[in-house]
Amino acid sequence: MADWRGKITSVSKTKGTTAPESAKRAGLGCLGVIIAVVSILTLLITIGLFKSGFVLMGIFATAFLLICIATTALLLVPNKRNPL
């Protein structure tokens, strides 16, 4: 428990210009998971729109779905390869 408190205090003491690398990865991971959930919900909405006959709205929802999937892939795939 003290280890977590030490990590939290070290993150909270930063001045906003820098943050620990683990905090950055955790933040990007959480954002990636949230966008993945949004893309799953958008997929369900898109399927419903096409089944109901709303093709034009379905096309816009499909475009948004593709943007969500691309954003999720960019956030969840690590940018830096750690050779160690």
Characteristics:
mainly alpha, 84 residues
Describe this structure in words.
7% of the residues are buried. The radius of gyration is 19 Å and the shape is elongated. Helix content is 77%, strand content 0%. α2 (21-52) packs antiparallel against α3 (55-76). It starts with a helix and ends in an 8-residue tail after the last helix. The longest helix is centred in the middle third of the chain and has 32 residues, at 21-52. With 84 residues, it is mostly helical. The chain has a domain at 39-76. The mean pLDDT is 81. The protein has helices at residues 2-12, 21-52, 55-76. The chain contains three helices and no strands.
Put the structure in a nutshell:
The protein is mainly α and 84 residues long. The chain is built from three helices and no strands. The protein has a domain at 39-76.
Going by helix content, strand content and strand pairing, the class is mainly alpha
State mean pLDDT (0 to 100 scale).
81
Multimerization state: single chain
Instruction: Enumerate how many helices there are, as a single number.
Output: 3
Gyration radius (Cα, Å) is 19 Å
Largest sheet: none
The CA-CA distance between the termini, in Å, is: 29 Å
Contiguous low-pLDDT stretches (5 residues minimum) are none
Proportion of residues in β-strands: under 5%
State the helical fraction. Answer: over 70%
Shape: elongated
Number of extended strands? 0
Secondary-structure element order, as H and E? HHH
Biased composition (Polar residues): 9-20
Keywords: Membrane, Transmembrane, Transmembrane helix
Transmembrane segments: 28-50, 56-77
Region (Disordered): 1-22
